[in-house]
Amino acid sequence: MDNITIIAVTSIITAGFTTGIGTMMPAIGEGRAVSKALDSIAQQPDAAPTITRTLFVGLAMIESTAIYCFVLSMILIFANPFWNHFLG
């Protein structure tokens, strides 16, 4: 197996794990955050605007983590810097 094939296989496997873990864990985190926020709103309805605002900021942060993992996996597949090292 030559170096190009090793880089390709490693990049594809790493991109798969990155996408898999990067989408699974934020989904679990978002589900837990929404669940806890709804529990809190049910216990204290007067604090609903504050809890909702904090929830949306937290969900945006969690979602940005998932997008970051997706972008990282796309870079590994389509713009891997190691390709140029061995091809050039």
Automatic annotation (TrEMBL):
One Pfam assignment: ATP-synt_C
CDD domains for this protein: ATP-synt_Fo_c
V-ATPase proteolipid subunit C-like domain ranges (all copies): 13-76
Segments crossing the lipid bilayer: 6-28, 55-79
InterPro entries: Alt_ATP_synth_F0_Csu, ATP_synth_csu_bac/chlpt, ATP_synth_F0_csu, ATPase_proteolipid_c-like_dom, F/V-ATP_Csub_sf
Superkingdom assignment: Bacteria
Site (Reversibly protonated during proton transport): 63
Membrane topology: Multi-pass membrane protein
Principal location listed in the UniProt entry: membrane
Subcellular location: Cell membrane; Membrane
Keywords: ATP synthesis, Cell membrane, CF(0), Hydrogen ion transport, Ion transport, Lipid-binding, Membrane, Transmembrane, Transmembrane helix, Transport
HAMAP family listed in its UniProt record: ATP_synth_c_bact (MF_01396)
Family: Belongs to the ATPase C chain family.
NCBIfam families listed in its UniProt record: alt_F1F0_F0_C, ATP_synt_c, PRK13468.1
Function: Key component of the F(0) channel; it plays a direct role in translocation across the membrane. A homomeric c-ring of between 10-14 subunits forms the central stalk rotor element with the F(1) delta and epsilon subunits. F(1)F(0) ATP synthase produces ATP from ADP in the presence of a proton or sodium gradient. F-type ATPases consist of two structural domains, F(1) containing the extramembraneous catalytic core and F(0) containing the membrane proton channel, linked together by a central stalk and a peripheral stalk. During catalysis, ATP synthesis in the catalytic domain of F(1) is coupled via a rotary mechanism of the central stalk subunits to proton translocation.
Descriptive protein name: ATP synthase subunit c
Taxonomy of the source species: Bacteria, Pseudomonadati, Bacteroidota, Flavobacteriia, Flavobacteriales
Gene symbol of the encoding locus: atpE
